[in-house]
Amino acid sequence: MSRSMKMPSRHKKPTTQNKPVRIFHGRMYFALQALAGAAWWLGTITLPALREATLGGLSPLLVAIVDVPLFVIGSALAALNFRWAVWVATAWTTLVALCMVIYATVTTEAGLGAVLMVAAAVGSILAGTLMILGRIPSERLVTGPFAFRSSHTRVRSQLLIRTTIQIMVFWGVFLIVIPGIINSFEERWNLTVKFPILVIVAGFALLAFGTVLGVWSARAIANFGSGTPLPAAMAHHFVKRGPYAFVRNPMAIAGIVQGVAIGLFIGSWMVIAYAIAGSLLWNWLIRPHEEADLHQRFGAEYDDYAARVSCWIPTFSQADEDYDDEDEADADADHSEVEHDHAADEPGRAADINVDADGARADRNDY
Questions:
Q1: Cα(134)–Cα(131) distance, rounded to whole angstroms?
Q2: By the 8 A CB rule, do 265 and 203 touch?
Q3: Pick from 90, 94, 93, 113: nearest CA to 103
Q4: Gap between the Cα atoms of 6 and 237, Å rounded
Q5: Which of 91, 169, 252, 312 shows a CA-CA span of 20 to 30 A to 244?
Q6: What pTM, to 2 d.p., does this model score?
Q7: CA-only gyration radius of the chain, Å
């Protein structure tokens, strides 16, 4: 059975006890980036195909004069914990990524180089933030319109309408618009790969599965939690029925499956990479805040649920037990409600009997 929320959602202040570990992770990233950059430059010298795929018509010598000191050596110095080198390597990597995207889009050359530099820029920004701040301020991602709040209404019809609108907007942006843009870049950069027909069919099947799971999850939140899937209108009651009885994040799983399915269906490996990267970022940056909010609002009920139900892997046996317990509890609640209704009706029935008896006596007296 679900219980009402125990307290309003509040974000805890980020702790700094793991700051040295996070800084170490950032340094290790820059060390790997320095090694990868050195290996890439060695490859461009010895492998013409790699040079053409990543540099196109650009002069390797001219690019190396600037890139080796700022990217390779800069990343190595950042790995040695030189803070100024973190700024230099991150800024240069981001600038090169932007320039490579423009160059590949205009010339249709060096598409692979653009993809690699975009990935390096994202990694450098995250690693640089870890080294400078000791953490990634991901709490800023769940503020303002994305802050965790309970739904303003509990009317089921309104919740279902809002949930439908949210799903259409969310899926439209993240499963149609963004994949379409990514696929257009992939075609422009000559990076398309032809997928077998069976893979395309599998993508369609996965898309259907993910869509059904997403709709089922959203309806469970509206029906059992009096809320919507978005953080700005969260459930008033803790939901552990429907797909949430099997796994803790069915909506996230549905989104990941749909993203990968779209990539398979349209034959875009970059869309598949986008879906996987997005799921990793959500898992690392957003999920901890969501789980902290659930713990604050529902306390021991959520802790017990989280201890029994896995975050990503379905636990069907425990879910069956939960369903049995909930059905039994629902039956007891319904039985109690019926008894309460019968008890409430007793005075009315007694009054009706008395009225009938009085009416019968009055009729006999008139007669």
A1: 5
A2: yes
A3: 113
A4: 9
A5: 169
A6: 0.80
A7: 29
> SS3 for the chain, per residue?
CCCECCCCCCCCCCCCCCHHHHHHHHHHHHHHHHHHHHHHHHHHHHCHHHHHHHHCCCCHHHHHHHHHHHHHHHHHHHHCCCHHHHHHHHHHHHHHHHHHHHHHHHHCCCHHHHHHHHHHHHHHHHHHHHHHHCCCCHHHHHCHHHCCCECCCCCHHHHHHHHHHHHHHHHHHHHHHHHHHHHHHHHHCCCCCCCCHHHHHHHHHHHHHHHHHHHHHHHHHHHHHCCCCCHHHECCECCCCHHHHCCCCHHHHHHHHHHHHHHHHHCCHHHHHHHHHHHHHHHHHHHHHHHHHHHHHHCHHHHHHHHHCCCCCCCHHHHHHHHHHHHHHHHHHHHHHHHHHHHHHHHHHHHHHHHHHHHHHHHHHHC
- pLDDT value at residue 351: 45
| 269 CA to centre of own chain | 20
Q: Which of 218, 225, 239, 240 is nearest to 169 (CA)?
A: 218
Q: How far is CA 219 from the centre of its chain?
A: 18
Backbone angles phi, psi at 261, to 5 degrees: -65, -40
φ, ψ of residue 232 in degrees (nearest 5): -75, -10
Alpha-carbon distance of 180 to 283, in angstroms, equals 24
261-273 pLDDT, tens digit per residue, is 999 999 999 999 9
Per-residue pLDDT of the chain (367 residues; tens, 9 = 90+): 344 444 444 445 555 568 899 999 999 999 999 999 999 999 999 999 999 999 999 999 999 999 999 999 999 999 999 999 999 999 999 999 999 999 999 999 999 999 999 999 999 999 999 999 999 999 988 887 778 888 888 888 888 888 889 899 999 999 999 999 999 999 999 999 999 999 999 999 999 999 999 999 999 998 998 888 888 788 888 999 999 999 999 999 999 999 999 999 999 999 999 999 999 999 999 999 999 999 999 999 999 999 999 999 888 765 444 444 444 444 344 334 334 444 444 444 444 444 444 444 444 444 3
